[in-house]
Amino acid sequence: MRIPTLLFVAAAISQMGATDCGNALRDPGFDLWCGDQMCAWKVETGTIHKVATWNEGDPGVELVDDGTKIEQTSPVDAGDGTCIEFDLIANVDANAQVALNLDVYADGSIEHTETIPTSSWAPIKFKLPIYGPYRGVRFELTKHGSGHAVLAQIGAKITTGCEAFTPIVPAPAPLGSPCDDTIGCSTGSCVQTFFGGLCMGCTDGSCAATEVCGASDPTSPLRELPRVCEPTASRELGEQCLHDTECASGICTFGYPSGSWDPGSQYGNCSACRLGDACGCTSAYLDGTLHGAFVCNAGAHVGGPGSACGDGADCASGVCNGTPRLQCDVDGRECATAADCPFDGLQNTPCSTVGIQGGSCE
Amino acid sequence: MRFLPLVALALLAGTAHADPAVATYAIVVGSNAGGPGQTDLRYAEDDAHRVAGVLTDLGGYPANAIDVIVHPTPEQLRDHLAKLAERVQADTAAGRQARVFFYYSGHARAQGIDLGATEMPLAELRERLFAVHASLTVVVLDACQSGAFSRIKGAQPAADFSYSSRQHLDATGVAVLASSSGSELSQESEELKSSYFTHHLLVGLRGAGDANGDGQVSIDEAYRYAYHQTLLATAETAVGGQHVTFEADLKGHGEVPLSYPRAATAQIVLPARIEGKTLVEDRRAHAVVAETYKAKGTAVRIAVAPGEYDVLVRDGDSLSRCPITAPGEIDLAQCHREALVATSAKGGADWDDPHRYMVVLDFLVGPEHHDAYTQNLTAFGYNEDIAPSGGFSLTGLRQVYDRLWVGGTAGLASIPAWKHDIVGTQSLSQELDWSVATAMATARIEDHWWSWLAYYAQLSGGLGLGHSALSAADHMTYSTTNAGPAFAAGIGLRCHFARFGMELGWTYAGAYAVKDLIGNTHLAGGNRLALGFSWGF
Fold first, then answer.
1. DSSP per residue over A92-149, as a string?
2. How far is A117 from chain B (nearest CA, A)?
């Protein structure tokens, strides 16, 4: 175990390129299959089949059922560019209607729908500009009707030359997203920070006396930690935090003193002790940006019943009761699999166990 | 053809070999140079030297009495004839008879012999030969109006020199042996490195023509031998059969011997059991010194210089090589069979034997043709490797008529890979590797600019097999093989030295043999630079 190096995750998200050589979509050719499901695309509804296209070894995806939807969320942002060129190859019957939906910010609101015309493997190209500053786009492909619809390719490349087109103006941005006066925020307000406008639910000192402007759980790798007013001492051991006052234990290890937080800061974890306390204070899960709850005598198998724990090894009984917590390595968002953690270069990042949330030794 | 009965000058000729009372002189002229509109000959001057050699070795002519004149001007020839006349005049004054052998190999036309750019009129040559006043004059003319069939085709050749010469040189004490009839053209052989006529005449003089086995070859025997062998050798050439002619106006009796092979220091004896076309090759010089058809039942002696020889005997489809040291007789136990090789090639500028074969190995390189198939690959995100397409082809050809060769071509070409990386992965990609094999019938038209440089046009058609292998993201390889029509058309230059040649050309080759699942067929091929190596046999 090594001393954690804390990353400025938010800064990284906002400043590093979020595409693969300008490509906004991972596996645009539907070539990656994990069994009978696509590895890079998620099926929202309906059924898909892997089918051959020009060659048996270069598959495409057939949207089988009426109402089938597949999607992929891309971390592309305004820093990459605001003009996207799409190139599609599809084989779409006349009695099938295929559409490409763009959900800017990936917040569930479809800002633009482009109908894919009936075609038989003829390349289709078009450009769409997106008004910035945006971060993240969910690309959704839908099919309606009974006809066959096979998609072989949907490239989405950041380019230029969109001046002639009317830009897509995103719906008001969700918490943690960049914003400006035009877009605004769906909740909270657009607060100017060092990195530009950011939708925040609160600022330090703006919450009620019984509340603190803290960090709720990350909701997307595309967004900063949502800052909302939370009841004081409402977060249990192992949960993410910014301030000590958010935690029931009163300790937010790696947290920041009230008033010093900015979007470039990292989150901490509600803990039973602070790193450096003379009780063997550490976490069984401490590697890079990963960390669980800090407890005394972590990993020493000495914790008695009811003692705070982050892992079974912290307890004499070997059992730490609580809720296992898995989160994306890169941003701390809760996850179930790596597919929930797309980030750098459109690749999935690991979804790792960081111990037990709200743990107490048996 | 008029054939006069020979009246031998037995006393004169028979004693010429040993009798100092008879002076023997020879003027041997060879000129490769062609006149206006004529292609240079290749072996006329070499033939002159060979004739001189046989006259020295077997004809009883002292070396200092043989005047070999190569590529002379008319003035030079006049000078030599004048000097000869002076020598004969001196002999006559001294009471010696004189025998003159005049040989000419080169181009000729109806009215004269072509000594390079200048013609010497036949009438003048006749008068100057008569002016020598020899007791016996033997004139051998190997005149060729054109050495290349391609130059002959469609032309109207003028009367052959041999025809004209018979008319102009018939005279008392004169015998004229000419290489072809008045309406024919004389030919050279690249394999023999000689004209057909002179080669067979000399083989006859070496002993193959000694029909009665008396150890000497008379002018009658030499003619008969040269007539049959030349006709046999040229019967299947593109130019056609060549008929040697002989006319004489001789007084006296007995035969006129031209050579005495029995007196030669070395002879090769072809045993009576041997039958078939027989070739005697000087092993060290790699030169054919005799070629004859050996009939079964009678031994044949061929006079040669002492040394190592190979005797090749072809009977039907079998070929036997018999090593021999001259003088000596072939030991049939030493003979071994070989694969059939070596037919003849026309000298001058063209092939003259239709039974020729050539194998060409070409290496081809060039950009790949782009079409809907490759556009589709691009649309699917694939990028073409910058390498050009490349491959090779092996062509086997048989000459069937003059400049026309037919045969087959087998080829294999590799097309640059097309590849696309899978976006969002660090190392995954898909790559299409493909190749095309073809088997085609081929026709080539080839003609010569010079004896060593030819230009050709070639057309092929047949079947192509396209093989593609897609290395997919799932780490599987998906192979596909399709068949389709294939073709190739090309032009180029080929230079050759003996059997080996090199060629450089342009070819457009293609095979509709690579297909995808959505209806596109790739014409695999394109413009190709062809560098090849040929081997003729």
1. E-TTEEEEEEEEETTSS---EEEEEPPEES--EEEEEEB-SS-EEEEEEEEEEESS-E
2. 17
Report the residue from B425, B428, B472 with minimal CB separation from A58. B472
* DSSP secondary structure string for all residues of B420-455: EE-TT-SS-EEEEEEEEEEEEEEEEEEEEEETTEEE
| Interchain contact, B425 vs A32, CB within 8 Å | yes
Q: Chain B interface, mutation test: which of A54, A121, A124, A158, most B Cβ atoms within 10 Å? A: A54
- Dist CA B68 CA B63 (whole Å): 10
What architecture (CATH level 2) is domain A12-158? Sandwich (2.60)
CA separation (Å) from B396 to B334, B374, B493?
A: 34, 33, 17
- Chain-chain contact of B381 with A28 (C-beta, under 8 angstroms): yes
The SS3 of residue B470 is strand
Residue identified by tokens 């309606």 is: A144
Hey, are the CB atoms on B472 and A155 less than 8 Å from each other? no
Nearest to A55 among B426, B428, B517 (CB): B517
Q: List the domain boundaries for chain A.
A: 12-158
The C-alpha of B510 sits at a distance from chain A's nearest C-alpha, in angstroms, of 21
- Name A360's bridge partners: A308, A321
**Residue A246 DSSP code:** G
ipTM exceeding 0.90?
A: no
Q: Do B381 and A52 touch (CB under 8 A)?
A: no
> Hey, is B379 helix, strand or coil?
helix
Residue-wise pLDDT for B460-517, tens only, equals: 999 999 999 999 988 899 999 999 999 999 999 999 877 889 999 999 999 999 999 9
Note whether A57 contacts B472, CB cutoff 8 Å: yes
Residue of A nearest to B470 (CA): A57
- Pairing state between β B318-326 and B328-329: unpaired
Q: Which of B423, B430, B477 is facing A58, going by the closest CB pair? A: B430
In order of start, what are the domains of chain B with their CATH numbers? Answer: 10-262 (3.40.50.1460), 267-333 (2.60.40), 356-536 (2.40.160.20)
| CA angle at B394 for the pair B388 and B398, rounded to the nearest 5° | 140
The CA distances from residue B265 to A20, B151, B268, in Å, are: 92, 44, 11
Interface probe for A, chosen from B380, B419, B471 (most Cβ of A below 10 Å), is: B380
DSSP per-residue codes, A272-310: SS-TT-TTT-B-S-EETTEE---BTTTTSS-B-TT-B-S
pLDDT in tens, B165-205: 333 323 347 788 877 765 566 677 777 788 888 999 998 89
SS3 state at A64: coil
Give pTM, 2 decimals: 0.57
